[in-house]
Automatic annotation (TrEMBL), chains A, B, C, D:
This is Xylose isomerase protein. It is an enzyme of class 5 (isomerase). The keyword Isomerase applies. The keyword Isomerase applies. Its EC number is 5.3.1.5. Keywords: Isomerase. It comes from the Eukaryota. It comes from Dioscorea alata.
């Protein structure tokens, strides 16, 4: 297994070298994919691919192409994969394919779920203008979709879903209620001991002293039901 | 295993007898559930429960209480479970709980997915007025939902989602495009050889003769992309 | 969905009629399979297929061909599927293919797991001599298995695994410890109130009276760890 | 999500600092776990935990405690998780619990599968003497296991399974056939162009030249069926 990973890293390094030699300025993308065609894919998900890129000193050279269906197959939501890529500066492109959440292989359907499209667009907007971020559609259809019009309908439907998702995401960001909920959830880290923790200045001795002084903390609600209601209301 | 199933049937038969003895007119409900608390639940899903009820002569005495989270855990969609129950005259009640499609256990959240709620309501409307059909909410919350208001928000959000689902379902049925698509998909069974097949009058000899006469049939598109676009447009 | 199921039943009835007409004495087999090629297969697992056969009056005409890989994909163990078929008089044949327990599609490998083979053979032996029971191997290999010898090795290995499973199963049955454990687990149904329950003579009134008389029952251990140890020791 | 990961890193760094301050020489362990208690665990599996440790400069300070049940829940085999940890110098301890491969939550059973135990022991032996490597058993039992003897049986059975696994693993390593198969599978990387690739000296220009010179390569069989047969014969 170590040898296979080494070989893969050598291959990708050679691709990077070649890119530089021919002065190609495009972004090199890796599309994480679990379970297919081998069970133990070394690019299982965004985090696994990040661990590989970091280990072999390749993290500056590649970005990720996230596909929702692959996210599902790896046990994550698409949004989780997009955010994992985004916060590590790796979100390069999105493959606008989705799959059935319960079937364990790649069904390569186009997006029709407005909720999923809204979450995707939240990541896209937050990823900002300076990052490469495009969508691509795999031009495949289901076995039963034998009319040439099916191809058009699938693309129109997928594109419309993404457009509705973008509008909803913009609405949610402009409204700000969801962001405010998240800000409040973590605000204890904005001041006093919390900000000391974030700065790495609070060691266990300090924390123990504070814990003894303050006693048992009250457990604050995560307000997840409220967050879900706000999100759904925007759809 | 056979002995356990026999015991279960005896117990349910005794419950039916008792119900009659005390002149209780309510409907007895079984809630299919896979994986929990035992791996090989004998009420895994609607079809498994139907096979049990038929085998022990209990199908007239029980109806099913379908829960979306249990549907997911059994590998089906909620709509599939509802329709399996409905077309067998077994849809008695709906447990308005849902779960994460990728986590393998019962998370008991309330519904927030408008698409899922619309599919549920299509089954409810088609099940008609003469059938028992109610919704119940399990009054539980997530471990993190510690405010008393979380309970209210969860119920309001779940109820609103079902209300939006009902409106969407009514719109889809009134519009009729989706039903027309399904009617056309199966219309070859409305006349000639198709209707003979439905009446059980077309044996293999007749079918072979027709197949030789007509030659290779053209494969008609299932129009699934169109069906999904129509559905999503109603949300 | 109802119409599709009706059509399937008509087709299978026509096959039965044809079989009789041409005086074919072989057994007609249905191989339950979930998720492929359609998500909502009407022959999802043994219990689902039983519910279909019962509903359409076809249970006497078909037996099941159980495949371990399909069992896994439906969320069950192979042994559960075999026993479900066996206790309903439906175990007709076994497809000696297995799959990876965590990959969600049909990998069509041959059996190499001795434990799984032993459980299979326990069902085969218990199914008895009067029932049709054969094994078939799908003559496929993995994409990477490009040598002609791979085909031989796969069959030899699969056959050896089944042979070892048969020996282990015979040993477990001859030894009798496991059967005795099961007998003891259910012995309260062999006498007194338990045998009354099995005969359908104990109604709720009788049971309530006994429950009040005896008080809170002690919870007997299921001895599952012991059962697993006995089973593994035979491998 | 980024903020939560930062906090986790701060906390672990504080633990490392505290360990040094009190001159504690033990190994700090992280036990990767997916899906529970939150869906998007930041320590999902070995590779995810490695990506986290690398990003925050903590890889030298922590080793992993691999649990087979958690491996299964993350979509991997236990052996894959152990090897991922081992080849990255992170295999610190093994939690000798396993789970049902098809139930989606932590069942915390003790190991009874000889094949799984053999694979585990192959990783343990290869991890060598200089590494911390111990096993621990979580002292829990199933809900039904109410006898005090069940606790003893479970531990004896788990320990025996590991002992049989160790013997099998030693036999496989001493025999050498499996290792030889792997050596041959990758031997094209031992000489000429292959060893140049491993040394990072073969760029795309060199590889293209060789590819043109040699023409279409013959596809060598992966001999997976043979590998599985050798492995199973040792059990």
């Amino acid at each position: 297994m170590k040898r296979e990973l080494d070989h893969l890293a050598r291959f990708l390094q050679a691709a990077v070298d070649w890119k530089k030699k021919i002065r190609f300025n495009g972004t090199l993308l890796i599309e994480p994919k679990p379970q297919e065609p081998t069970k133990h894919q070394y690019d299982w998900d965004a985090a696994t691919t990040l661990s590989f890129l970091q280990k072999y000193g390749l993290s500056g050279e590649f970005k990720l192409n996230i596909e929702c269906n692959h996210a599902t197959l790896s046990g994550h939501s698409c949004h989780h994969e997009l955010e994992t890529a985004r916060i590590n500066g790796l979100l390069g492109n999105i493959d606008a394919n989705t799959g059935d959440p319960q079937i364990g292989w790649d069904t390569d359907q186009f997006l029709t779920d407005i909720g999923e499209a809204t979450l995707i667009m939240l990541s896209v907007i937050r990823n900002g203008r300076t990052c490469t971020r495009r969508f691509n559609f795999d031009a495949k259809l289901r076995r039963e979709s034998t009319d040439v019009t099916d191809m058009f309908i699938a693309h129109i439907s997928g594109m419309d879903t993404l457009a509705r998702g973008l509008r909803n995401a913009a609405k949610l960001i402009e409204d700000g209620t969801l962001d405010e909920l998240i800000r409040k959830r973590y605000e204890s880290f904005d001041s006093e001991i919390g900000s000391q923790i974030e700065k790495g200045k609070a060691d266990f001795a300090t924390l123990e002293k504070k814990a003894m002084e303050w006693g048992e903390p009250s457990v604050a609600s995560g307000k997840q039901e409220l967050a879900e209601m706000i999100f759904q209301s925007a759809l």
